Amino acid sequence: MDALKMMDMMEQYHIPRVCTKCGGVMIFKGVGEYRCEDCRAVDYDDYGKARLYIEKHPGATAALIERDTGVTQKMIRRMLKDGRLEIKEDSRAFLRCEVCDKPIRSGQFCPECEKKMHQQIEAKERDRHNKALGMGVGMGSTGDEGHRRFIGKDMF
After folding, report:
1. Which one, of 54, 56, 29, 57, lies nearest residue 44 by Cα?
2. Whose CA is closest to 84, among 42, 115, 49, 51?
3. Sign of the C-alpha dihedral computed for residues 47, 49, 50 and 51 taken in this order
4. In the chain, what is the straight-line distance between the N-terminal and C-terminal CA atoms, in Å?
5. Is the model's pLDDT at 73 over the cut of 70?
6. Where do the domains of the chain lie?
7. pLDDT digits (tens, 9 = 90+) for 54-66
8. Looking at residue 147, what is its pLDDT?
9. What are the phi and psi torsion angles at 35 (to 5°)?
10. Given a cut of 70, is residue 139 above it in pLDDT?
11. In terms of pTM, does the model score above 0.85?
12. % of the chain residues with pLDDT over 70
């Protein structure tokens, strides 16, 4: 990931870089948690805040999460689409597959559409790879399958 994309991600998820207590450097500890290398104060990015809130309040709505953590509903929806958060199974709320419109709990695609999409990508990549290797040349000829083929002397 290049530096510009990394900076953009830090801004989008409100990743803490500097300790608000002492000005020290915040070190990533995992799952949205950051700890100051000087005073050991803990802070969280938007994902960490939302996840902690959901763990303490299972089934919380996006509106409640926004109200109590400051993480916007737009960011929560983005985390759902990115597969970082998931809607509870028994919830009446859901996302929709961007291809077939089936209800889903996380991500952008239902499992069936995601599988089809990956198969299409793999097939295109296989075709591209085979063309790059020159595969397919001489294919389709009949007879002598598996035998060596030689260029005749009169060809040169």
Report:
1. 29
2. 51
3. positive
4. 51
5. yes
6. 9-90, 94-134
7. 999 988 999 999 9
8. 60
9. -130, 135
10. no
11. no
12. 78
- For 81-88, the CB contacts below 8 A with 24+ separation are 81/106, 81/107, 81/108, 82/107, 83/107, 84/47, 85/47, 85/50, 85/51, 85/54, 88/58, 88/59
Answer whether 131's CB lies under 8 Å from 123's CB: no
150: which 2 tokens?
């030689």
- Beta-strand pair 33-36/26-30: antiparallel
Contact between residue 54 and residue 42 where contact means Cβ atoms under 8 Å apart: no
Amino acid at 105: R
Q: In what order do the strands lie in the sheet with 26-30?
A: 26-30, 33-36, 42-44
Confidence label for 90 from pLDDT (cuts 50, 70 and 90): confident
* Residue indicated by tokens 């961007």: 98
SS (H, E, C) the chain: CCHHHHHHHHHHCCCCCECCCCCCEEEEEECCEEEECCCCCEEECHHHHHHHHHHHCCCCCHHHHHHHHCCCHHHHHHHHHCCCCCCCCCCCCCEECCCCCCEECCCCCCHHHHHHHHHHHHHHHHHHHHHHHCCCCCCCCCCCCCCCCCCCHHHC
Contact 10/31 with Cβ under 8 angstroms?
no
